[in-house]
Amino acid sequence: MDPLLLAWSYFRRRKFQLCADLCTQMLEKSPYDQAAWILKARALTEMVYIDEIDVYQEGIAEVMLDENAIAQVPRPGTSLKLPGANPAGGPSPAVRPITQAGRPITGFLRPSTQSGRPGTMEQAIRTPRTAYTARPITSSSGRFVRLGTALFEYIFHHESDVKTALDLAALSTEHSQYKDWWWKVQIGKCYYRLGMYREAEKQFKSALKQQEMVDTFLYLAKVYVSLDQPMTALNLFKQGLDKFPGEVTLLCGIARIYEEMNNISSAADYYKEVLKQDNTHVEAIACIGSNHFYSDQPEIALRFYRRLLQMGVYNCQLFNNLGLCCFYAQQYDMTLTSFERALSLAENEEETADVWYNLGHIAVGIGDVNLAHQCFRLALVNNNSHAEAYNNLAVLEMRKGHVEQIGDLQRSYVAAKKSEETFPDHVDTKHLIKQLKQHFAML
């Protein structure tokens, strides 16, 4: 069998290491074989390849070395840094948990900052924010026509040497007399990775003038999100939908931005539009199910999570959510079974801690305080920094009358006032502050 054909067969079956090894043997015999070089570069790239479009998370370099000036007091509803209250009357922060930045926790875990191969601090800053994504390979990232394009992808993804990749892309753009939109997109990607957002914006806009592509709209929207301009990103997505009606990735991008801005009802509408186009879209199903759960509709949420189970999604998080939905929908026969399955599928201690934490809530719901105490303790055994478990243990100790294990009244009052500033309409916080004021009056 022809070695090149065999190597290509390995590549098609995603056996990238075998493909790269076979290409190396071919290149030892024929060092100038371009087909072998391209296939080897592609195989090595695919080992660490991720779709840059799906990765929004900021890395070490962006957090520590950010020099972009952003308005300190933006208008309400125009910033992702200060999402504000829900304008459409969806679930309040008392019901739906939020992140430290004030954004609601989404129903779908998106690619985060798990890096390719960082060994040192310098390498951690250089390496991309890599993580595998379920998104199919895109038209622009899948272009490997010549050796130059394959070489660029190898340098950019495998070696994470953005500066060299930028130099190669700039020379290639110059060679093509600035008429090749693909190389302009690659320069924009390099500028984005280097934190030069305005330069990246110019390159993506120039590429769009030459050739309108879905990927370019998504990359440019990423730039605006990084510059904290969600309204501009929304307008851009809608322009893209005019050119590509019903495009799922554009609809999903709009839904994500609305969700981060705490406009849950608009996000749910766009996720439903996504499902009209693609009824197997996992992220849309999970987010709509999460929205129904926090809107006090566990029976409807249960239908969406069961749909995910039918589609083959089989992990700890899904069974965790199924257990909670079954409990609040009063289907008690399935509750403990789902949590047992979640515990057996947990891949790390953090996931195990979350399952035990939710089991503690189930125990509180059925009135078994001792079981709840044990569950919260087990959550802390698995994850010693589980703040919610500490908080609920403190509540249980207070109910037992063990006030000395909690803290002093002054610290409680300071914490309650901070809570009131974060969420002014929280009834329990108001009640606690009233009780503390009564205690202070008696002193």
Number of strands: 0
Work out the helix count. 22
Structural class: mainly alpha
Shape: globular
What's the overall average pLDDT, rounded? 82
Termini, distance in Å? 91 Å
Q: Sheet with the most strands? A: none
Q: Which residues sit in consecutive blocks of at least 5 with pLDDT less than 50? A: 112-145
Strand content: under 5%
Order of helices and strands: HHHHHHHHHHHHHHHHHHHHHH
Helix content: 55-70%
Report Rg.
26 Å
Describe the structure.
The chain is mainly α and 443 residues long. Helix content is 65%, strand content 0%. It has 22 helices and no strands. The protein has helices spanning 3-12, 16-29, 34-48, 60-64, 121-126, 147-158, 162-175, 181-193, 197-210, 214-226, 230-243, 248-260, 264-277, 282-294, 298-310, 316-328, 332-345, 349-366, 369-382, 387-400, 409-422, 427-442. Helix 1 (3-12) packs antiparallel against helix 2 (16-29) and helix 17 runs antiparallel to helix 18 (349-366). The radius of gyration is 26 Å and the shape is globular.
Question: In a few lines, what is going on in this structure?
Answer:
The protein has 443 residues and is mostly helical.
Furnish the topology, listing elements before pairings.
Layout: H1 3-12, H2 16-29, H3 34-48, H4 60-64, H5 121-126, H6 147-158, H7 162-175, H8 181-193, H9 197-210, H10 214-226, H11 230-243, H12 248-260, H13 264-277, H14 282-294, H15 298-310, H16 316-328, H17 332-345, H18 349-366, H19 369-382, H20 387-400, H21 409-422, H22 427-442
